[in-house]
Hints:
Elements: H1 4-35, H2 38-65, H3 68-91, H4 97-125, H5 131-159, H6 163-182, H7 203-211, H8 214-229, H9 233-244, H10 249-271, H11 278-297, H12 301-329, H13 335-348, H14 350-363, H15 366-393, H16 406-410, H17 425-428
Amino acid sequence: xxxxxxxxxxxGQSVSMIGTWMQSTAQAWLVLKLTxxxxxxxxxxxxxxxxxxxxxxxxxxxxxRFGKYxxxxxxxxxxxxxxxxxxxxxxxxxxxLWLLFVFAVLLxxxxxxxxxxxxxxxxxxxxxxxxRNAVTLNTVMVNLARAVGPAIAGVLIATVGIGxxxxxxxxxxxxxxxxxxxxxxxELHLADPxxxxxxxxxxxxxxxxxxxxxxLRNALLMMALVGTLSYEFQVSLPLMAKYTFHGGAETYGxxxxxxxxxxxxxxxxxxxxxxxxASALVRAALFFxxxxxxxxxxxxxxxxxxxLLLVGAGSVTFLSLGSTTLQLSxxxxxxxxxxxxxxxxxxxxxxxGGPVVGWIGSAAGPRWALGIGAAAAIAAAALxxxxxxxxxxAPGAGEPDAGAGxxxxxxxxxxxxxxxxxxxxxxADVAPGxxxxxxxxxxx
Length: 444
C-alpha cells in the first residue's frame, strides 16, 4: 500500500468488486424469477462468457500491443454504462429474458478485453519485489467483495427490489474511474509494447508460445477442465438455495458469501506460502474437488455453509497458484496473451459448462450440479499428476516450478526453448495469489 498508484487502484476496485458481485447475484435471481429454469440461468451465464471464448486471445493481443491504462479506463467506463442501462431496464419493469441475453453478451464483449488487461496491469503498478504483496491484497480484495456483495444483494432484493443492485453496481464504477484518474502514469513500470513485425506481435505466436511451454500448457488444460464444470457456482448455488434448501435471494446471498469468506482465509494462507511448484497446483485441485463433493452431499443448510467455506478456500488456492504460475513463467511481452488464454479457460469455458450444469441441476437435482464439478476438479488433479510424473521421468528433469518460464525472458524471450525445472531465488519470494481473475464483471 506504500505504492501510491496501487493504493488508489486498490480502493477503487474494492468498491467496484462489491458492486459486481451484487449484479451477479441479482442477475441470477432475476432469471430464476422470470423463468424458474436452471437451463436458462446457465445459458445467460454462457452468453456472458461466450465472447471471451471466441475473442479472449484477441483481447490479450491488444493488451500486449497498447497501453493497459488507457484500455482499462474505457473498459471500466463501458461496464458502468452497461450496468446503468440494465438497472433502468429492470426498475422500469421492462426486463425480459431476451434483453438479459443482449446485456450479457455486451458485458462479455467488454470483459474479453478488460480481463487480461486488468490482470496484467497490477504488474505495471508495483516493482517485482513487491508483487507478492500486491497479489495478496488483490486476493483479499476480490474475495471480501465476494463475501460482502451477495449478502448486500440478498438484503436489497428482499427489501427494495432487484433493480437497485444493478444501479449500485453502476455507481461503483465512478470510484474506479476516479481512482484511475488519480494514478500517475509516469510512475508505472511499463513493459515494452509489442510491435508488428517483431516476431512476437501476433495472435498465433501466443498460441505457439504456450504450446511449446509444458508448464503453461498443462496449467491451462487443468484450468479448462475445472473452469468448464467446477466453477459454475452462479448456476449451481441459486438452484441449491431455491430448490434444495427452499430459500430466497437472501439464502443464495449467504451461500455465496460463505464461498467468499472461505476464499479470503484461503487466499491469505496461500499467499503466505512460497511453494509455487506444479505439485502444489495438483494438490489444490484435489482439495477443491473434495470440498465441492462435501457441499454436494451436505444434508442441511448449516453443513452446506461450512462446506462452502472449504470450497472458497480451495477455489482461491487453485486459482491463485494457476495465475501466479502463468504470470511468473511467461515472457513479459507475451503475458497479456497468456493471461487471455487463462481467461478463456476460466470464463470462456462457461458457454459449454454453464448450460450443462444448469441442465443437470434441473433434470437430476442441484446436488448433481455440484457433484459434476467435484468430479471435474478431481479429474484435473489426476491430469496434473500424470503430466507431473511424466516430467519427473524425463532424463534430468525435476519438478516444474512456477519460475521456470521467467528464464526465457532473460535468455531469448518468447522464442527461447522452454525451461521447466529451474529454481530461481527471486521467484521463491513471490507467493501465489489472484491477480484479479475474478465473476471481472463475469466470473470473479
